[in-house]
User: What shape does this take?
Amino acid sequence: MATYAVGDIQGCLDEFLELLELIQFDKAKDKIWLTGDLVNRGPDSLETLREIKAMGQSVISVLGNHDLYLIALARVPEIFSRYKHTLHDILSSNDKEELVDWLRSFPLLHYDKKLNFALVHAGIYPTWDLAEALTYSEEVTNMLKDESEIDSFLRELYGDNPLKWKPTLTGIERLRFITNSFTRMRYCHQNHSLDLREKKHPRHASPNLVPWFAAPFRRKTKVSVVFGHWSSLTLNDAHKREHRVFPTDTGAVWKGTLTALRIDDLKYFTTIPRSKKNFSANN
Assistant: This one.
């Protein structure tokens, strides 16, 4: 039995199937962890969701920002349908409600005590310990599952503020900060506030910013974290060990690769980049 963590698929079904073949995935005994952003921007969001759902208990996924956007589109389309997306196939499908309700059950954070690994889309806010992070994740999950509250929550969810955590935050401000931390965060400022705009690799970002996992105010932890969301990020083995973090988004939707990390021995597997496939086909 092996456990694999797979980076952002974003509707790239061919790459996902290629990766499953590469790792010789056996759903009868292996587990797949997905870092979220299963949909949007890629060519096959609907079939990707159907494929993953059909894999049943062999799959554990957290929510990414694009998955949340799909839920918002499906639930309160009058607010979000004017924005550009590639989710029309899902929104017009006869199993839309079933798929969206399935997504609503996903957590923002998953932790496996035996493996001592946490799975998240973007990251864990640096001042939170694991117990706090799991509690805060559950607050948002409960809201997404609440049929009487979810639509009003989604209508108010989107926005950057507040940028700094306070345990005394309440209501939508609290839930928005929690959601943004788990699904959008890359950088923090030295004053502990989030920067939700910068996407560059740390070598090219402002020196005033620090990656969430390298923040000097990050709580010390023995828990390793696997995450996606940050396709421009590359870390060497020393940095991964130092910070106990394992990024897996290698930009499949941007003609990069789709990557799996085998949690058991920390070995990476990657598909062939789409650009090289196209070159091979034309030569």
About this structure: Confidence is low (pLDDT under 50) at residues 279-283. The chain has one domain: 3-281. The chain is about 35% helix and 15% strand.
